[in-house]
Amino acid sequence: MAKVLLMPPIHSYKQYPTYLSLSDFPTGFAYIASALKEAEHQVVGLNLNNKRGYGTGLSLMKDKLPEAIKDVDLIGLGGLCIDYAFIRDAIGVIREVSDVPIVLGGRIVSNDEEVFDILKPDYAIIGEAEEAMVSLASTFDNGGSNPPWIIRATPPDVDTLPLPDYEPFDIKEMIDDY
User: Fold this and answer.
1) What's the farthest any 2 CA atoms get from each other in the chain?
2) pLDDT at 18 over 60
3) What angle do CA 8, 4, 68 make, to 5 degrees?
4) Signed CA dihedral, 17, 43, 26, 89: sign only
5) What CATH number is attached to the domain comprising 154?
6) Of 95, 100, 87, 89, which is closest to residue 59 (Cα–Cα)?
7) How many domains, the chain?
8) Has residue 93 got a pLDDT over 80?
9) Residue 9: enclosing H or E segment and its boundaries?
């Protein structure tokens, strides 16, 4: 069983602190969490949204991220183009303390292929990520080497995907604090 950290972007990262409503939470992370759990991988979520008490989003990440990535096999990041600064900084903080493989997904990857060369994640996933993340996690769990490519088509029937799992992302805390 691989241990995978999933970290959704901090909403309005450059304007920290801001508040993210549950309706704005990036649901793709919850779908990926469900798929990984269904495949018997361990999922750890690091949702830094609505956390107060730091001067900047970067200082929040520098405090919380190093501890969160201890003993993980794979890190999943993603977002939209507006999340570029968050993703850049998150990868920078991760690379300062660890060489754990980073997977980048979301529209930021599919909008501009140069983002892969600039941000330098280990992997990028375009489109639905559930099967590809499970495949990557299984590869690392079985002691496999880094696969150069994993290609998965969008599932023909998205109704076959498990329902989203919000539990790893402290959604209850977000609702209570909102």
Assistant:
1) 45
2) yes
3) 70
4) positive
5) 3.40.50.280
6) 89
7) 1
8) yes
9) none
